[in-house]
Design brief:
The structure holds 2 protein chains of 2 kinds.
Chain A: E1 5-7, E2 10-13, E3 19-24, E4 31-38, E5 42-50, E6 53-56, E7 65-71, E8 74-79, E9 88-95, E10 103-104, E11 108-112
Chain B: E1 5-7, E2 10-14, E3 19-24, E4 29-37, E5 43-50, E6 55-58, E7 61-66, E8 71-76, E9 85-93, E10 99-101, E11 105-110
Parallel strand pairs in B: 2-11
Antiparallel strand pairs in B: 1-3, 3-8, 4-5, 4-9, 6-7, 7-8, 9-10, 9-11
Classes of the chains: A mainly beta, B mainly beta.
């Protein structure tokens, strides 16, 4: 397995633009997580899915953020409109649940100017 | 909010020495996990210790868990330059299927 695949690796966009981050989890994993990492706030859980269903989105900062998982092999995190404070590294991870370790993707470094 | 807090925030040692990092947490857990993150990369799972376990080994890694003190430690023996990375503890909060990560310890191994 190629691991958790995220795209793009880097994204630079202007304030106000829509940004879409993509994630392909490991086949067979039934949990998918989106985290955001910044120097100030560390790793924050934004939302997680179980069997493609959103379970907990309490970490989503505001309505500008939305996430979908249309099938077991694909998820998106969308920011519309983007703001400079959204600049961070966004990670996707998948697992069989918290009784097992997570497998993280390489992340998407988002810069909003 | 952060569930786990690592200590120290940064640690610098000579190659060959042992490195010890600590993690404290606040609420009851099912398990505690340690991850490594190399600069510019994703996190890599190192080891998981369940709440009914007190110690676990994996190669040069040794993890202890004290649920009465709500704390854990990660020991890396005979450190190597390649161990230079940030190390995070993550707790599986009981009743919620999600991991909450601490702020991490930045470990530097000097050759």
């Amino acid at each position: 397995d190629a691991g958790v695949i995220q795209s793009p690796r880097h994204e630079v966009t202007e304030m106000g633009q829509e940004v879409t981050l993509r994630c392909k989890p490991i086949s067979g994993h039934d949990y998918l997580f989106w985290y955001r990492q910044t120097m100030m706030r560390g790793l924050e859980l934004l939302i997680y899915f179980n069997n493609n269903v959103p379970i907990d989105d309490s970490g989503m900062p505001e309505d500008r953020f939305s996430a979908k998982m249309p099938n077991a092999s694909f998820s998106t995190l969308k920011i519309q409109p983007s703001e400079p404070r959204d600049s961070a590294v966004y990670f996707c991870a998948s697992s069989f649940g918290t009784l097992y370790g997570y497998t993280f993707g390489s992340g998407t470094r988002l810069t909003v100017v | 909010s952060q569930q786990g807090e690592e200590d120290p925030q940064a640690l610098s040692i000579q190659e060959g020495e042992n490195a010890t990092m600590n993690c404290s947490y606040k609420t009851s857990i099912n398990n505690l996990q340690w991850y490594r993150q190399n600069s510019g990369r994703g996190l890599v799972h190192l080891i998981l210790i369940r709440s009914n376990e007190r110690e676990k080994h994996s190669g040069r890694l040794r993890v202890t868990l004290d649920t009465s003190k709500k704390s854990s430690s990660l020991l890396i023996t005979a450190s190597r330059a390649a161990d230079t990375a940030s190390y995070f503890c993550a707790t599986d909060v009981r009743g919620a299927q999600k991991l909450v990560f601490g702020q991490g310890t930045r470990l530097t191994i000097n050759p």
